[in-house]
Structure formats: C-alpha cells, structure tokens
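Record type: monomer structure entry
Structure origin: computed from sequence
Chain ID: A
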Amino acid sequence: MDRKKTYLIVKQLIGGVSALGLVLQPALVGAHEDEPDQPVGHSAKVLQLSGESPITFGAGLTMVGQGMSGATDDSGLTYSADLAFTGDFGSRGTAFIYINTAQGAGIDTGAATGPNADNESGDLTAEGYSETRIAEAWYELPLNEMASVRFGKIDPTGIYDGNLVANDETTQFLADTFVNNAAIAFPGYTGGINLAVNPNETWSVNIGVFEPTGDFNGSLGDSFIIGEIGFAGELAGRPGHLRLTTWSEDSTKNKGYALSVDQSVSDDVTLFARYGNQDDEQDFDNAFSLGGQLALGGNTVGAGYSLLTTTDMAGPDDESQFEIYYSHAVNENLHVTLDLQSISNPGFNSANDDVFVYGVRGQVDF
C-alpha cells in the first residue's frame, strides 16, 4: 500500500470519530479484564430490590465501525447492548443472568479469526431486527471455603484463558485472535458445570464439562472438557499471572493445550503472551500471540502480534495479524477507540492480498 493511500485511510478514520461519536461495543460480552470469572460489567451498581440480598447490576452499550482494503473493499457496523444481574446470597451462593442484544455481521477479511470478536453475536439474515438472548444464566454454590460449583448456561471464556490486558474486546484488543486463544475450540455460551478450587490467593484450579455445540440441547454425550491451573505471583516485585489449560472436544475428536501469561513491568506497562496447540487435522495447529498495553493516564495504547501455523487441511502459508489501538476516555462513562489491523496471508495463502482493517469503537458503561 503506498503512502498516499495509507494517509487517506488514516485521515478518513480520524475524521470518522466525530461522525461516529456515539460508536459504542459491548460492555459485558467479554468483560473479563479485572475478574475473568465474574463478567458483571465495568461499571456495576448495587440495587436493593427486595429482601436482604443485594443485586449487582451492570449495563453497557457498544457499536463498532470497521472498513477494510485488500482484495476487496468492505465496511460495516455492529452494535451490542448488554445487561447483567448478579445476586449475592452469601454462604448460599451466587446467581448470574446476562442478557445481550446485538446486530451486525461486520466485515469478512477471509482470515481464520475475525477482526471484531463480536462479529457472530448479531449476524441476522433479516434486516432491521436484532437478536436478543439470555447469553448466561447460572448458579454458583459454595462447597466449602475453597471450592464452589457453577452450573447452568455459562460462557467458558469467562472462566478460562483469562489475561489482564488481552481478554476484553470492549476495552482492549478488538480482533478475536487477541481476545481468546484461537487454538482452543470454545463452544460459546452453552450448558455445563464447572468446579473451581481456590486454596489461596496464589493458586486456582478449574475443571469444567460443557455441551460442545453451544445450542444448549441438554446433551453432554459429546462434551467439551477443559481444565486449568492458574498462578498469581510477582516477578521482580511486579504482579503477573500464569494460566495452563488443557481441553478436549468429543464431537470433532479435537484436543489441545494452552498457556496465557501477563506480567506488569512498570506502573504503566503490562506485557502478555499466549500459546495454544490443537490437533493438526484442523486448519492450524499452533497459535502464538504477544504484545502489551501502555497506560497513559485514563487512556491506553495496546499493540499485539499473532501467528497461526498452517496444516495440510488449509493453505500453504502461515497467517499472521498485527493490531494497534488507542483508547481515549472522553469521560468516566464513554471511551472511544481508534483501531488498526493488518492481516498477512489471509486464508493461509500468500496468493491472497494482505488486508488492512481500520475501525472505531465506542464503549458506554452505565
């Protein structure tokens, strides 16, 4: 791409901020930044509706505008509105309900992972209508001071493969490859049961069994089984996290393992890395990603690089992706993000043109 074309694209993107000043993306769909296993939103309110048990309420609204250049030019909008309710019953457990409405198919780059982690959440064939669903509805029962069991309709990515700076498409990276490990065949929001054991603040263990197709048909005959050991500690006096995950999926006979690391290196800089491996009968067998986030007061800058190594089932070339974003806090409720992505060898084929994606995301938390 020549300099003049690049300049015009960036100029259009910056100019689009005012036109898309209300461009917003979901506060709750991937809201795992601070507490990966409690997606209650970034801005929670406590309501006392009845009885003695408080209800925590979170809400968010998002829209993403994206365009692309490459073999074809395309553009699109997606939006999501989200409500989450958490009932804390103390020693009797916790109940959680998450309601999401979304619309928009986004853009299709031809890559193995999407440039917008929520592309599929609102992809409807009927124009003018949005899809509303109860995405999660579960109850978590304490077994003792260290262990609890969660059952119902659950988002496994809210429990597994967490990362402090590469886990939330509403405030951090937008591309799917930096939100979840691409080499884990997560089933989406689905029925299942999860056992969590937290012996202390340093170690955590999770084991879960979920319905693999995400259609909540009540059958666990073919299951998605996953387990993870988490470690939270310090390196040179700076906090960090290490998560080791293994999983298997019966219906496709696929299985794999994964690693997720985040490490603070200063008050303003946090680095991350992920690695995942799955069976080589898939389009790719290894997924790598690394990058970091820089805090600038209330604003943030993030950059990441990912690589998917191809197998005989796909094209001849590895697919790589680069993303950089700048998130600006307009006020405590509204964040606007400029996002740029570059995808090399989309579809695992160097004969395909590289794709350049430019976008704007806005996030409103209530």
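Annotation 1: The first strand starts at residue 44 and ends at 47.
Annotation 2: Helices lie at 3-19.
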